[in-house]
Amino acid sequence: MGYTEAILYINGVRRVLPDGLAHTTLLEYLRDSGLTGTKLGCGEGGCGACTVMVSNYDRTSNTCVHYAVNACLAPLYSVEGMHVISIEGVGHHKLGLHPLQESLASSHGSQCGFCTPGFIMSMYALLRSNKTPPSEEEIEECLAGNLCRCTGYRPIVDAFRVFAKTNDALYSGLSSLSLQDGSSICPSTGEPCSCGSAGTCNGDRFQPISYSETDGAKYTEKELIFPPELFLRKLASLMLRGNGGLVWYRPVRLQYLLDLKAKHPDAKLLVGNTEVGIEMRLKRLEYQVLISVAQVPELNTVNVNDDGVEVGAALRLSELVRLFKRVVNERPAHETSACKAFVEKLKWFAGTQIRNVASIGGNICTASPISDLNPLWMASRAEFRIINCSGDVRSVPAKDFFTGYRKVDMESNEILLSVFLPWTRPLEYVKEFKQSHRRDDDIAIVNGGMRVFLEKRGQEQELFVSDASVAFGGVAPVSLRARKTEEFLIGKSWNKGLLQDALKVIQSDVLIDENAPGGMVEFRKSLILSFFLKFFLWVSNHIRDVNPTIETFPSSHMSALQPFSRQCGVGRQDYETVKHGTSVGLPEVHQSARMQVTGEAEYTDDTPVPPNTLHAALVLSKMPHARLLSIDDSAAKSSPGFAGLFLSKDVPADNMIGPVVADEELFATDVVTCVGQVIGVVVADTHENAKTAAGKVEVEYEELPSILSIKEALDAKSFHPNTEKMLRKGDVELCFQSAQCDRIIEGEVQMGGQEHFYMEPHGSLVWTIDGGNEVHMISSTQDPHKHQQYVSRVLGLPMSKVVCKTKRLGGGFGGKETRSAFIAAAASVPSYLLNRPVKLILDRDVDMMITGHRHSFVGKYKVGFTNGGKILAYDLEIYNNGGNSLDLSHAVLEIAMFNADNVYEIPHVRITGNVCFTNFPSNTAFRGFGAPQGMLIIENWIQRVAAELDRSPEDIKEMNFQTEGSITHYSQHLQNCTLHQLWKELKVSCNFLKARREVDEYNSLNRWRKRGVAMVPTKFGVSFTKTFMNQAGALVHVYTDGTVLVTHGGVEMGQGLHTKVAQVAASAFNIPLSSVFVSETSTDKVPNASPTAASVSSDMYGAAVLDACEQIKARMEPVASKLNFSSFAELASACYFQRIDLSAHGFHIVPEIGFDWESGKGNPFRYYTYGAAFAEVEIDTLTGDFHTRTVDIKLDLGYSLNPAIDIGQIEGAFVQGLGWVALEELKWGDAAHKWIKPGNLLNSGPGNYKIPSINDIPINFKVSLLKGNPNSKGIHSSKAVGEPPFFLASSVFFAIKDAIKAARAEMGLGNKWFPLDTPATPERIRMACFDEFTSPFVTLDFCPKLSV
After folding, report:
1. Molecular function (GO) terms listed (predicted)?
2. Is 416 annotated as a binding residue?
């Protein structure tokens, strides 16, 4: 029945797969085999970090096929008999990089590097699978399933664009990229160059040749080929086992499959495992029998005939797209209306990696109520052909197949055999619809499929509806037919009157309960009407050719039909290079880039573990506020691999922890105060066994009242102790009472939180040495010193016996500043007590649930101003949601208060703030640290002032700008204020007045699509506001070969800190950058380091390194002055023989800063980074969909240390900010979301929490650095860059609001101001565009619910 052995080739190496691994994923197998370049980012196929290429021999077409897959979802045995190429099989920094890797590294497309291997592999698979070079559109599409949180995507797209069709020489059969004139194509730029002979760009190893269908479609001359053994190997059935009695079958004949189904009626059938894998891994469902049907020929058939097309149920979605595209080209246009609809729908269905493995049958039989395809099958008259175990086949119309929530008309002894899609007829039209939070790779909020078949009647040849289908997803527990609507349409004449009548019917036909799961009820109801309007207009437009006399709609209404068609993005970067020494000021490539693009760069989870290592999983609270009555671990103890459960009673020393105030417990003792609070930690022999055992720990609770929003906290006066603050300037009350203010407005601004979504989850590896006398750890943290402190505290060890090391982070953004420390502390307890290494890596869902987010805020303002637009008084009450412990919430509040003025001169200011205690996991630092929230409040009411005065917001801003010498509300004088120059240059660069005119003209011609523009300034103060934290240390060694080793207290997390610091050292010694190496951050090298945060690290650690270098140079100077040394190595060696110390500890303190809260005076910031941004957006007013057409950013960074890295930080910060203002919404179980379990986070993974994808970046993305403005207070005249650009993304938010204003004007609302909460999701955009399709469900002042 099977082979003597199951085999798999990985990177050309043959491996025999043992029995017993049916529970194992391909990713786990790769990583356990030492191939750690493939990363675990989410475990649900949503981030692309685990992408690999799978190659197999298709015996139907006799070709090799290559495709990208998510290794985190692929069962190991699903790739048996195939060739898997991981990032390690593409290129190596020692042996040579592939052109893809070289291009990405040199284009600055890798920052933290954690996502980089996945991007490389997606692009690699595209090139290997294409006979011809891909188009730029195909490149962007193939990357849609890969997420990056650092770069903003632009440099990644630029790096890969050189492999597009534009230059045929790259893909011809010419050897070694040679052109006719003897020059070569540079793989980094795609342009001719002469460096090929020197080997600096394209060495001998990677040189493209032609595509080949017989040897594995080789892309380069030394590419890994498809193993010949796999060509000759005959496909056979498999039966293999896994943990817990799991059995894996792979039938290769239909009859054997039917026999298996008869024997195992409850077996789960799978192809891509994209649904079952998530159920088993994330939902912890247990299935005993899995049957992989991917290799059953009868389920992969394609039959195209005169009646339609029949496709096997196991056909992959990517194959379905190719099939439908082919028949659209080959068949008459009137026959393929449904096929075109499927092609369009599948374009936005998941990512490429998912489409490559997910099957038609799996998608259908899952019967998800939000399935993208099922409503379309229903509308298209499709038939599902079902076969039972006896071989009997029956057909069921798709419209009758779905019987209830995840229930279908299929018995346990039946399987879906195939799907038949009939050709459409003349005058029959099928259209698809979908609206989701994010356009790319997102589940639908509402989707639909609609069909109408018209016939001509009478002498006038009037068109009547002969048949109709209307189906929706996302409106009921099942894909729903609008039966009354269908019945109403049939027999009616197709005219304007029918549209209005049908809209009334559909309102009563499709009903959504007020507390329906998923929420957004009003939005979903409006989408149903909007979709039908679009369908009616679309059909009416198509039949004009048939019936020119039909009633037409105004041309402006045709904007409802404009499909989203994204042009390939264009980026421009403009900066000056001010070189200092050998390296400072140059756009050097990130020092780890070449290792990151090959997957060789190590992160915490990649570290080889010592023998006898245990894996840990946390036991977490399931209640937001409850008393712990009992903890039963009896079931956990009998779980496989269990090694121990550790609770508060087991903590060797102090159970109380906290970064500022020790107000949180490491392990809960008597009471839990949030869902996700740690109760204990389980250790076991594997990660999965630890999770399983932790899940078996039974905790009994007594529920207590909980506070689940800022509003509830204010009502209950629930605040963290001693967190009330106030800042004053002038006399607000007197100004309001005087006659100075012509107008006074009051209002409230609220904004949701944001998940950090660093690509690398939290993790620590802890071990003891010297018999348990010392504890060492490797952690993914921005603050190793904090880890050292926490572990020292809970174990009762002196800090001198605890060492924390950090090599690099896969992103941090503030989320790994304090909230990583309790994870290390939790792992340290079992490690210390058992004297064994313990590794604790959080799964993405747990990470998102328990480690805190950007704070949600509420600001209540009162503002007085003149009729001329001058702001006179500003009174603000500001509150943030601190969660269940203080963490850094107080400091975040203070920064929000400092930045509440943004860039505006206001004579009278009073700001009071407080930190709310709520029963949520403690919120924490995030890029901007409260400043964006404070600035967003003032920018909101600036817009309102403009609306009140019927002026442009830009005018109001300009007349209230601060200037040189302005005194802030915290008494700091502004020096070297470049705001006016920046703003003026940006206005010229974006041609603002022209852009405004063009947008107004567009809006006048388009009813259902609107554009908007906005300009936003920012002023970001740079320093830790706690004076003692503004210190930095570094250790510099010079070796006798002239190389330099630097260690400092800062952490490299993708921001390029180590590269900039190395540049400082290289320039100080006047040596090449390649001669400087920056080692890992370690508490035993540089003690007491402040966290890598607040954008100050380049300033502080650069200065500390420079101090150390200057000390060494001063010692070397007497030797250097005596002789003429030909190299630095000669000088270093000479100094060594003269017994001169070539090692130095450098130190730096930031001068002239400090603030006294009692007096409200001081200089909390060393200097300010100024910036401004322009944005133009376009919205679909019927659905709330939007895209950013243009962004123009200008920032003052003094003399940049490294303009390429700084540009990358600006773009990355902006796109992350774009997520905050427009895409990313955290939904909690609170009063606003009663359908979510109280205190629980709904979106705990990329499946339902959407960060920006490659499709969301601005189409035109320009970044400029202000020239000729050195900063005398920064290292080598530079300025901080990490956080300041983040807030500039609010320009997109206000451009969206500008577009909404144009939509509301169509309803006679003119310039009337309206609130818009952040994030401005499609729901909020759509519902703010008040019109006849929302008015049946909401009033004019409706605001969608928001968790704050």
Report:
1. 2 iron, 2 sulfur cluster binding; FAD binding; iron ion binding; xanthine dehydrogenase activity
2. yes
